[in-house]
Amino acid sequence: MRVAALLMAAGRGERLGAADSKQFLPLLGRPVLRRAAEVLLRDGVVDVIQPVCAEAERGRVDSILAGLPARPAVAGGATRQESVRAGLEALAAEGPELVLVHDAARPVVPAGTVAAVVEALAEAEGAIPAQPVADTLKLAEGGAISRTVPREGLHRAQTPQGFRFPLLLALHRAAPAGATDDASLLEAAGHAVRLVPGSEDNVKITYPGDLERMEAAMLPRFL
Ligand code: CTP
Ligand code: MG
């Protein structure tokens, strides 16, 4: 196996505040989790998916992903970082060459992005899709601006993020808690991480309204 992809689905979706975790909600008739798995596989460069979810949801995740090249789900942890570590450990025996880490809450990834991330790993130890920041950035406290922050060079990180598997596993085993994404572990250790073009469509469902906006954007393709 050359390329494995972790599908991160152990979160509880507290900011969305729905009765169910967001990865299980329907997006135009199919669970967000299922769509996120399908977009990972679409470019034909991922050999197998390793889902990571809450212990109690393992059976449900396996049935949502039925028919896809996915390993049985493994249990995640209290933080995303702990969940990624659990997924990496589950793949350690097979030892893939490359690993992608993707949020199950990102069910819309344009065609070509996954392949571009994998391609970029020929020249770097890590690669992530990212979007340049478009808005002017204000540093503020208590509703008052203290200054404008230059946005030149600033990017918003998306997933799937791709890495050489042995390196990401080693960095996770050594990492202190608190990393907000996987690329930051490489950055802190001085490894090269390349950017590939992200997309405004690649939204992480986070707040109320995100799922509905995504459905509205997708709907015309079905009419
Ligand atoms: N995730 C995970 N394990 C955790 C926390 C998050 O696998 N302990 C996953 C989520 O399921 C999600 C992705 O990481 O697909 C991005 O996290 P986030 O958007 O923060 O999702 P939640 O943690 O579910 O949402 P919230 O923070 O609002 O509770
Ligand atoms: Mg979270």
TrEMBL record:
Record protein name field: Bifunctional enzyme IspD/IspF
UniProt-annotated stretches for the region 2-C-methyl-D-erythritol 4-phosphate cytidylyltransferase: 1-223
Catalytic reaction list: 4-CDP-2-C-methyl-D-erythritol 2-phosphate = 2-C-methyl-D-erythritol 2,4-cyclic diphosphate + CMP; 2-C-methyl-D-erythritol 4-phosphate + CTP + H(+) = 4-CDP-2-C-methyl-D-erythritol + diphosphate
Record's keyword terms, sorted: Isoprene biosynthesis, Lyase, Metal-binding, Multifunctional enzyme, Nucleotidyltransferase, Transferase
Cofactor annotation: a divalent metal cation
Residues of the full protein shown: 1 to 223 of 381
UniProt function note: Bifunctional enzyme that catalyzes the formation of 4-diphosphocytidyl-2-C-methyl-D-erythritol from CTP and 2-C-methyl-D-erythritol 4-phosphate (MEP) (IspD), and catalyzes the conversion of 4-diphosphocytidyl-2-C-methyl-D-erythritol 2-phosphate (CDP-ME2P) to 2-C-methyl-D-erythritol 2,4-cyclodiphosphate (ME-CPP) with a corresponding release of cytidine 5-monophosphate (CMP) (IspF).
Site-annotated residues for Transition state stabilizer: 15, 22
Pathway(s) the chain acts in: Isoprenoid biosynthesis; isopentenyl diphosphate biosynthesis via DXP pathway; isopentenyl diphosphate from 1-deoxy-D-xylulose 5-phosphate: step 4/6; Isoprenoid biosynthesis; isopentenyl diphosphate biosynthesis via DXP pathway; isopentenyl diphosphate from 1-deoxy-D-xylulose 5-phosphate: step 2/6
Gene name of the record: ispDF
Similarity comment: family membership: In the N-terminal section; belongs to the IspD/TarI cytidylyltransferase family. IspD subfamily.
Gene Ontology molecular function, alphabetical: 2-C-methyl-D-erythritol 2,4-cyclodiphosphate synthase activity; 2-C-methyl-D-erythritol 4-phosphate cytidylyltransferase activity; metal ion binding
Recorded coiled-coil stretches: none
Gene Ontology biological process terms in this record: isopentenyl diphosphate biosynthetic process, methylerythritol 4-phosphate pathway; terpenoid biosynthetic process
Residues of the site described as Positions MEP for the nucleophilic attack: 151, 204
EC number: 2.7.7.60, 4.6.1.12
